[in-house]
Amino acid sequence: MSEQSQAPYGQNTSAPAGTSLPSRVRIPHLARAKAEGRHFAMLTAYDCQIASIFDEAGIEVLLVGDSAASTMMGASSTLPITMEEMIVFARSVVAGTKRALVVCDMPFGSYEVSVEQAVANGIRLLKEAGVHAVKLEGGARYAPHVEAMTAAGVPVMGHIGFTPQSEHVLGGYRIQGRGEAAQVMIDDALALQDAGSFCVLMEMVPTEAARAVDAALRVPTIGIGAGPVTTGQVLVWQDMLGLGSGRNPRFVKKYAELRPLITSAAAAYLHDVHAGTFPGPEHGFE
């Protein structure tokens, strides 16, 4: 296999000098990143236009998150979103990408009932939306689901630590993996890896617990609120670009403040329409 196809990067002008760029980021590229001590970036995406921007920027992995329930649909949690809605969002993201690996969340209620349900819905996401892999929340309990899905040709990313779909069981948004619970996380991560997960995401866990999990695994890890010790990092794009109006979680770094900029542009448009200065002669036809 060529050096180009092995490289763990997307098309990114900030990639290290001399690094070849793959035509499509795939699961082995992420594994190679971990083996060579490199990092990769993942962002959420829910539509074609944003996906194409992130793809052009070189983001290696795009996550069609069930966070769309809140960021795109106004729900107070991730729980209400359906498979049909996830398929629409995911299909839009796939249409906007050329190089990024696209992963789609399995929404709440789409895999918990049985192994057979998980396999059927995983196949739907690959077949109907065109994504390259799926993500499901939970530890060792879902190892049989992961094993069956992988055997059926559905690549699976695991998700441990804080799992938003279980927020009511967990008692809200709480840090997971402190003290003796760190060993449970390690055991869960190993069970997912051994069942076939190609990667394990950790959310809202202490850095040292994340370090222990990453050291125990052969497969890459991705962190969100898990410190700098994971192979990959993920953020919700609206948080990363300052689009929200509320307080961001501690683990979010804002790389831009889009909300004031968009608000100002909309207000300027409103002013011009009210004043009759838009559209001007240059915006019309003879």
TrEMBL record:
Q: Explain how, and how many, cofactor molecules are bound.
A: Binds 1 Mg(2+) ion per subunit.
Q: Sorted alphabetically, which InterPro entries does this protein's record hold?
A: Pantoate_hydroxy_MeTrfase, Pyrv/PenolPyrv_kinase-like_dom, Pyrv_kinase-like_dom_sf
Quickly give the catalysed reaction. Answer: (6R)-5,10-methylene-5,6,7,8-tetrahydrofolate + 3-methyl-2-oxobutanoate + H2O = 2-dehydropantoate + (6S)-5,6,7,8-tetrahydrofolate
Q: Give the first-level EC class, as a single word.
A: transferase
Fill in the subunit field for this protein. Answer: Homodecamer; pentamer of dimers.
**NCBIfam families, A to Z:** panB (TIGR00222), PRK00311.1 (NF001452)
Q: What is this protein called?
A: 3-methyl-2-oxobutanoate hydroxymethyltransferase
**What species is given as this protein's source?**
Paeniglutamicibacter cryotolerans
